[in-house]
């Protein structure tokens, strides 16, 4: 089998329709790192032999959630925040049926109990609009401001591995003249170690290519006392995953202009994160939110984000498998922000071909798929990948030469040129610090058409704001 035959078409792209991706992320994120030197056997069994957190651990996490809370609210106000919940615990299951059913499924480790995207409501109450008056914190550059917020939850949009997302509107109650704003409401399943970090990181981020966190609040279940964290976010109409899915159904590719626009803005967002010393650790098509009418892209879902510190150990089981950098597949724990650049390169290749480039069935198979296209790495390449790690030589026993990126991409997209192949190959490298990213990526000739004064969206509208565009124009001209 040739290297190009390794590139497979995913069965379903959209996050709302993909059980496999949800299960994979849940599997990967419940695992723990035991040592630096993985064997080939460990890599083979990693995805099957994971240890799941016990129900008791989850219960303790929920009970202690308030101690980890980034906001401090008296009991009386927390009770007011739960206004709108039915007081009977069983009836309260129907207050937010999708959320609580998903919560039960998570605790029992049974994905089959999760509602599907198109599931029918079980009662008339589920069809109605949910209205809550909550005490929230409004995110600001200085200190977050406590406020009263009217929240209307209108429609279930979908679920991630650790949260549910709804469409809704919010309106501050303590400010006259404010209009309702349409938003996304993300409800995080109770896990204080995650929600505290997600909010504390997300509230600090301010960039046009990152989803903005507007408010956050917590409701308490009247009987079980489970905390239900909610994040009020900018609403975007679609994702790269959904737009690819639409075109796959029609047998077409994402227009070249959008592939360039979306990848340019992805690199802008990642550059901001890297300068701010954060890595996202879950860059994938589902987390790239887009507006096709305006051409805008924003990176979302900061549940796996973390502050980057030199030489600090981190969990290797991050990033959805298909977009996982080779150092993560080899369980290296001292990785850096370049894992996000690798994921972006995988997505770019996917946008150009409508194919998941490295379609591994488990962690070991993922590494093999990378070897078959990028070639089996040399010891010197691995030393430049993440210094200070050792590796079982058996992992490198199968030798593959590097494939030709131009031939791989051209097989699925006749309009591909050597420029396309060059940017993909420059990003998807074993040597972390040599991966194309940041300003160097934005200067690449792949994006030259965006720098032309005549560049417009298909309907004739101007391109969205593109950070560093003038800077890269001068650099390219020079």
UniProtKB/TrEMBL annotation:
Q: Tell me a GO biological process for this protein.
A: regulation of microtubule cytoskeleton organization
- Biased composition of type Low complexity is found at 58-67
Provide the Gene Ontology terms for cellular component.
axon; cytosol; nucleus
Q: Which PROSITE patterns match?
A: PROTEIN_KINASE_ATP (PS00107), PROTEIN_KINASE_DOM (PS50011), PROTEIN_KINASE_ST (PS00108)
UniProt keyword Transferase present: yes
Instruction: Give the residues the record marks as binding ATP.
Output: 187
Family stated for the protein in its record: Belongs to the protein kinase superfamily. CMGC Ser/Thr protein kinase family. GSK-3 subfamily.
Q: This protein is called what?
A: Protein kinase domain-containing protein
